[in-house]
Amino acid sequence: MAEIDMMRLYPKTKRNIDERAALITPEQRQLARQFGKDFFDGNRLYGYGGFGYNSKYWHDTVRLFRDHYELAEDSSVLDVGCAKGFMLHDFKEMAPKMTVAGIDISEYAIANSIPDVAEFLKVGNAKWLPYEDDSFDLVISVNTVHNLELADCKEAIKEIQRVSRKHAFLVVDAWRNDHENERLEKWNLTALTKMHVDDWQKIFAEVGYTGDFFWFIAG
Ligand SMILES: C[S@@+](CC[C@H](N)C(=O)[O-])C[C@H]1O[C@@H](n2cnc3c(N)ncnc32)[C@H](O)[C@@H]1O
């Protein structure tokens, strides 16, 4: 289990945190939490503001995953919170023999997923992964698990551990000081569990998670 920034090649977005905090209403946060069209392809104030494929996002990061975890041509990868499947598309493009699978709670995202991996994606909840124990060489979950209440979050992390036979990598909303905590509160739309990095690590230990992890920090 290691803290490792596997997202270091992922492009950083320019965020106007104060502007969002000033403009957004509780109703819009509620709308975002439904993970429907409004969240992915609606107004940028309460979501992505248009969630389309662009190779600049995952192209380099999937190569980093492959090299770091020494994945083979035919390894298997699960993405928990896969949205429209863009990361898995890039895995397949890099290594066509890989087995990929994705799961996401959003019917909208799965229905509008990128066609070449659509057959590998399912609608489902991270807290009940519909896969056998030890199914995947690498399970990745980026900015997803924190969208559950703490008790469910623990279930989801246990599930990630259960279906992984080798590696796992998790990114969650977190903070290290009051400033980052305030910034996260302002920026966050959907997370139900936001914790200090040390508290996350206690949860990982409590549920027996042995994978790697990193933080989404609203700096
Ligand atoms: C911030 S997006 C991240 C998407 C993708 N992992 C990425 O990094 O681009 C969060 C994703 O988590 C999904 N999600 C939220 N709650 C979930 C749950 N309980 N189980 C599975 N997916 C969930 C949302 O639908 C959304 O696609």
In terms of topology, how is this protein built?
Layout lengths: L16 H7 L2 H7 L4 H5 L13 H14 L7 E5 L5 H9 L4 E6 L2 H5 L9 E3 L12 E7 L7 H14 E12 L2 H10 L7 E2 H11 L4 E5 L3
Parallel strand pairs: 1-2, 1-4, 2-3, 4-5, 5-6, 5-7
Helix pairs in contact: 4-5
The chain binds S-adenosylmethionine (SAM).
S-adenosylmethionine (SAM) binds next to loops.
Level of helix content?
Answer: 25-40%
Which series of helices and strands comes N to C? Answer: HHHHEHEHEEHEHEHE
Overall strand count = 7
Please tell me how large the radius of gyration is. Answer: 17 Å
Strand content: 15-25%
Number of helices: 9
The first-level CATH class is given as Alpha Beta
CATH level-four homologous superfamily name: Vaccinia Virus protein VP39
The pLDDT mean sits at 96
Cofactors and ligands: S-adenosylmethionine
Indicate the low-confidence ranges by residue numbers: none
Q: Label the overall shape.
A: globular
Sheet with the most strands?
Answer: 7 strands, parallel
Number of domains: 1
Name the CATH architecture: 3-Layer(aba) Sandwich
